[in-house]
């Protein structure tokens, strides 16, 4: 496979550096679909359905991953280190997190100009993106269905410094032009958000596809799932799109940096508090509370910051305990059944 074809699929120098002479017989592939017991990878030879080498589970492979495979055996041999990894907390007692996508450049966080708009939920997505080193962009759909779309844009821009915000009509003929700066050759993007906000409509516009869409429920502005699994699609502008199902639950774990980056006006002032472990409640010398009283920090933002920080701390501790338990079981041999002795 020539380097131009690899580049077309999103191959970068960080992936090339992981290839050694011992890998000469192996073929790079980019994961387009993950199924229960196999994956589909894109290569210069076309798509390949791959079974997994022993020791690799489908839970350890994400759409967007780069892998090395043995094409003659249709077998995935090794997952290359990721440039970026988007994941969310799920079952903390197992020490695991759920992979959402790999090697993303941009995350389009999608919501609507209606009752679906929820700053707290948007901040969760922002924390995940910032922590992973992925550029976040807020996308406000149904801007044509409200009399005051600017009010939603103002609220969205208040969620970060220099945070890109797009207000679009997802069904408009020029919708792809709004996304063009992030969708060129070699770029990989993902659409995330709840169901019914127009992700599939936008994906169709960006890829030229015709996936089915379904309208939202009028009583609560919530949608019905149309995308049922993550998948990788070529965009008309030359990049790659990872479409994701709507996610109502979005647990945070091990994303302290991402939370600080999402609330910079708070995290920066927190370093000036008198006490290092200041909870920003009623402690003396709290620089954050001083800023709230001066009108420099939105008290609602502070409340959401503290809620996410508390959740992240508890989840991170639970994951650490679970991983430590697994390590101890590995050292002592617990968890594996001893063969029965014959009498």
Give a short overview.
The chain is α/β, with parallel strands linked by helices.
3D structure, described in words:
With 343 residues, this protein is an alpha/beta fold. It has helices at residues 3-8, 13-16, 119-132, 149-157, 175-179, 199-207, 256-262, 264-270, 287-293, 299-332, and strands spanning 27-34, 39-43, 46-52, 66-70, 75-79, 85-89, 97-102, 106-112, 135-141, 165-167, 188-192, 231-234, 240-243. The chain has 3 domains: 3-79, Beta Barrel (OB fold (Dihydrolipoamide Acetyltransferase, E2P)), CATH 2.40.50.140; 85-243, Rossmann fold (3-Layer(aba) Sandwich), CATH 3.40.50.300; 256-331, Ribonucleotide Reductase Protein R1, domain 1. The protein contains 10 helices and 13 strands. A 6-stranded mixed β-sheet has the order 10-9-8-11-13-12, sandwiched between helices. The protein has a 5-stranded mixed barrel with strand order 1-2-3-5-4. Helix 3 (119-132) packs across helix 7.
List SSEs in N-to-C order.
Answer: HHEEEEEEEEHEHEHEHEEHHHH
Roughly what percent helix?
Answer: 25-40%
- Mean pLDDT equals 88
Class inferred from helices and paired strands: alpha/beta
Computed over alpha carbons, the radius of gyration is: 23 Å
General form: globular
Reported CATH architecture of the largest domain: 3-Layer(aba) Sandwich
* The CATH top-level class label of the largest domain: Alpha Beta
Largest sheet: 6 strands, mixed
Number of helices: 10
**How many beta-strand segments?**
13
Relative strand content: 15-25%
Q: Spans of 5+ residues with little confidence (pLDDT < 50)?
A: 214-228
CATH topology of the largest domain: Rossmann fold
């Amino acid at each position: 496979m020539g380097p131009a074809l690899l580049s077309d699929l999103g191959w970068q120098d960080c992936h090339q550096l992981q290839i050694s002479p011992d890998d000469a017989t192996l073929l790079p592939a980019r994961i387009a679909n993950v199924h229960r017991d196999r994956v589909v990878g894109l290569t210069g030879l076309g798509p390949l359905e791959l079974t997994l080498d022993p020791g690799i589970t489908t839970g350890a492979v994400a759409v967007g991953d780069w892998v090395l495979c043995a094409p003659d055996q249709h077998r995935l041999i090794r997952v290359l280190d990721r440039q970026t990894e988007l994941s969310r907390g799920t079952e903390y007692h197992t020490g695991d997190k759920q992979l959402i996508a790999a090697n993303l450049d941009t995350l389009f966080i999608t919501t609507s100009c209606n009752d679906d708009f929820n700053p707290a939920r948007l901040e969760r997505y922002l924390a995940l993106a910032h922590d992973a080193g992925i550029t976040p962009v807020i996308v406000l759909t149904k801007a044509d269905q409200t009399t005051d779309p600017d009010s939603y844009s103002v609220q969205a821009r208040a969620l970060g410094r220099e945070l890109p915000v797009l207000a679009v009509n997802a069904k408009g003929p020029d919708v792809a032009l709004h996304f063009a700066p992030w969708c060129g050759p070699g770029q990989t993007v993902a659409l995330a958000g709840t169901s019914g906000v127009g992700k599939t409509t936008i994906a169709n516009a960006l890829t030229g596809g015709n996936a089915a869409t379904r309208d939202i429920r009028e009583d609560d502005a919530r949608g019905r799932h149309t995308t049922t699994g993550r998948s990788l699609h070529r965009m008309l502008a030359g990049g790659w799109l990872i479409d994701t199902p709507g996610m109502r639950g979005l647990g945070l774990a091990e994303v302290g940096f991402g939370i600080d980056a999402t609330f910079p006006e708070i995290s920066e002032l927190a370093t000036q508090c008198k006490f290092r472990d200041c909870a920003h409640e009623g402690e003396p010398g709290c620089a954050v509370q001083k800023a709230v009283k001066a009108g420099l920090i939105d008290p609602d933002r502070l409340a959401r910051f503290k809620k996410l920080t508390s959740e992240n701390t508890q989840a991170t501790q639970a994951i650490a305990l679970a991983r430590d338990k697994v390590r101890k079981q590995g050292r002592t041999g617990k968890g594996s059944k001893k063969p029965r002795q014959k009498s």
